[in-house]
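Researcher: I'd like a candidate sequence for this fold, 361 residues long. If you have to choose between options at a position, lean toward the conservative one.
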């Protein structure tokens, strides 16, 4: 594994640029990948890829990185034009939110895949754990540096959380679910430390799978998340959701594992709330945490008005102080048409500005 203090990272620290105004806006992580870069039919055929999905790329390998760079700049500029305060790189280089990092770890075999039976009865192709999980190469630092070089706004980088990583594989080595999750947590922590060494303003762990196995999440999920965040300063987020709207049509109206996240060391909890029409009273269980509140319904192809977004933000302010609320989409925007995603982000920024003016009046 590279050393965080070696020449590849040392000396490139970027001062924190986290917004100081109320209701700073952000994205959860992903933004639509252009049609000239990704075959979206091929992507959808994989659902949310756990193993490799190289067939989704339309650009040949010799030119793929250059194409991904160009598409990333488009994503960054869209977020800036929309008025978003805290940007990601749109996760343009990723086949899914998790496999880009997961398949780069030692101990993982993605060539001879295993099987995973989902709660809905589907069988999906997943990588196998065949040895000790170890961090061996920095996965997101290249993208983080590229993002920093192409915006002067605050930046965020997301990683799959350790509990979710442990639920997306066939374990042929540890035979112990907690041990597997803790091994993933150590690997995630290595990557997070490298990102913070670069001056990344915000880091986020995506943990959608805690709600699918709440009994196990209660037993060791919070412990694994806290191990992953050990020693990580600055704004840290845990994101939970019910899945991409394009993949999960019917969503529950409440979380089976949410209040327990108050026991994590994460400073912020990100929740999907708009599409499932979540009863925001549950936010009382997260007192003391900053809430990254989903106020864009990604299951609705219509672009929200600024007033619709503002109303959803005001609903959140009934339970969360304005200095502890960060408006955001429900989830990643990867599966949306780009024009729709841009329109929704513009409504997000404009809706937050409306409420910000009201608070200042």
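Model: Candidate sequence:
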């Amino acid at each position: 594994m590279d050393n965080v203090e070696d020449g590849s990272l040392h000396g490139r620290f970027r001062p924190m640029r986290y917004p100081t105004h109320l209701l700073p806006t952000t994205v959860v992580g992903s933004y639509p990948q252009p049609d000239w870069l990704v075959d979206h039919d091929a992507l959808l055929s994989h659902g949310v890829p756990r193993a490799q999905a190289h067939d989704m790329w339309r650009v040949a390998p010799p030119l793929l990185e250059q194409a991904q760079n160009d598409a990333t700049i488009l994503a960054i500029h869209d977020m800036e034009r929309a008025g978003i305060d805290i940007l990601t790189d749109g996760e343009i280089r990723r086949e899914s939110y998790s496999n880009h990092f997961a398949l780069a770890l030692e101990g993982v075999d993605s060539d001879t895949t295993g099987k995973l039976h989902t709660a809905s009865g589907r069988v999906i192709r997943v990588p196998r754990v065949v040895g000790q999980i170890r961090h061996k190469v920095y996965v997101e630092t290249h993208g983080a540096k590229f993002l920093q070089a192409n915006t002067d706004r605050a930046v965020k980088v997301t990683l799959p959380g350790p509990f979710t990583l442990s639920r997306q594989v066939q374990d042929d080595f540890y035979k112990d679910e907690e041990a597997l999750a803790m091994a993933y947590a150590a690997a995630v922590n290595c990557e997070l430390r490298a990102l913070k060494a670069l001056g990344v303003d915000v880091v986020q762990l995506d943990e959608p799978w805690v709600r699918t196995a709440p009994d196990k999440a209660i037993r060791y999920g919070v412990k694994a998340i806290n191990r992953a965040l050990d020693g990580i300063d600055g704004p840290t987020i845990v994101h939970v959701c019910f899945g991409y709207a394009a993949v999960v049509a019917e969503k529950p109206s409440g979380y089976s594992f949410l209040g327990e996240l108050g026991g994590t060391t994460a400073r912020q909890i990100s929740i999907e709330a708009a599409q499932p029409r979540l009863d925001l009273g549950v936010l009382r269980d997260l007192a003391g945490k900053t809430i990254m509140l989903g106020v864009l319904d990604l299951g609705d192809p219509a672009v929200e008005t600024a007033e619709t977004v503002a109303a959803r933000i005001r609903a959140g302010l009934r339970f969360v102080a304005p200095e502890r609320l960060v408006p955001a989409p429900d989830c990643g925007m990867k599966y949306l048409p780009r024009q729709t995603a841009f329109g929704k982000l513009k409504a997000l920024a404009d809706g937050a500005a409306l409420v910000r003016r009201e608070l200042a009046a």
